[in-house]
Amino acid sequence: MKINVENIKRVVVKVGTSTLTHASGYMNLRKVEKLVACLADLYNSGKEIILVSSGAVSCGLAKTGFDRKTLTTEQKQAAAAVGQCQLIDMYDRRFSDYGITIAQILLTRSVIDNKERSRNASTTLELLLGQGIIPIVNENDTLSNEQIKIGSNDTLAATVAKLCHADLLINMSDINGLYDSDPRSNPEAKFIEYVETVTDEIFAMGAGAGTARGTGGMATKLESARYVTERGIAMIILNGANPEILYDVFDGDFVGTYFAAQETK
Ligand code: GLU
């Protein structure tokens, strides 16, 4: 079986901290280079790309020297302000090498929950895409704390997919996709390649499975999958260890867990 990629034009790609950074917190430059090259290639093939990238807090912690073990919310917010600069500068330089312009969009829950602000974000996304620009989105972590944050970038990516009426959301993480039980505790766990509907049974499969260094576990990914598929957007969870896996997706191969869109947009 192959994925029908013919009709996929607008794609949101979400990359997590664990995919982009070393355990030290600093950027994994080899992976970033590969990711940008793949995205630039997909862009050249005619796809519209929106990148939802984490990494601000991790980069900022590495640069500011705040101690992860005793980190306060305020230090995390300050670290994000430093890290987001580095993150976007790094993308800007690399996409520029391919002649591609990028834009930075930082969202907060108060934007998403407010009709007018989210409409502004949606209009901006549309205008940027229309001009052939790749928007790069993150949560504005400096303005957020545990109580008011969007949650994780898994949730952010699903919201962005809805805001820009994407055809597909690709969630690149450090896990291969969905198993019928947690593969870290059950070596017999069976991999699920295709999910027709995100049912309670599917949720039960993902319960407890998490990622090594990102904030979102399988549960938030499944919530995102339910949210977007109910809005006519397909989603894939895959392992971003080698970003070139994106080529396989657009060759129509099943390389992670594919969640079918429920209805047309
Ligand atoms: N927005 C955070 C960052 O850029 C990451 C949140 C997440 O990965 O879920 O560091």
SSE inventory with pairings:
Blueprint: E1 10-15, H1 17-20, H2 29-44, E2 48-53, H3 56-64, H4 73-97, E3 102-107, H5 109-112, H6 115-130, E4 134-139, H7 153-163, E5 168-173, E6 178-179, E7 191-192, E8 194-195, H8 200-206, H9 218-229, E9 234-239, H10 245-250, E10 257-259
Parallel strand pairs: 1-2, 1-5, 2-4, 3-4, 5-9, 8-10
Antiparallel strand pairs: 6-7, 9-10
Helix pairs in contact: 3-4, 7-9
Task: Characterise this structure.
The chain has 265 residues and is an alpha/beta fold. The protein has helices spanning 17-20, 29-44, 56-64, 73-97, 109-112, 115-130, 153-163, 200-206, 218-229, 245-250; strands at 10-15, 48-53, 102-107, 134-139, 168-173, 178-179, 191-192, 194-195, 234-239, 257-259. It has an eight-stranded mixed β-sheet with strand order 3-4-2-1-5-9-10-8, with helices on both faces. Helix 3 (56-64) packs across helix 4 and helix 7 runs parallel beside helix 9. The site of glutamic acid has 15 residues, from helix 3 and strand 4.
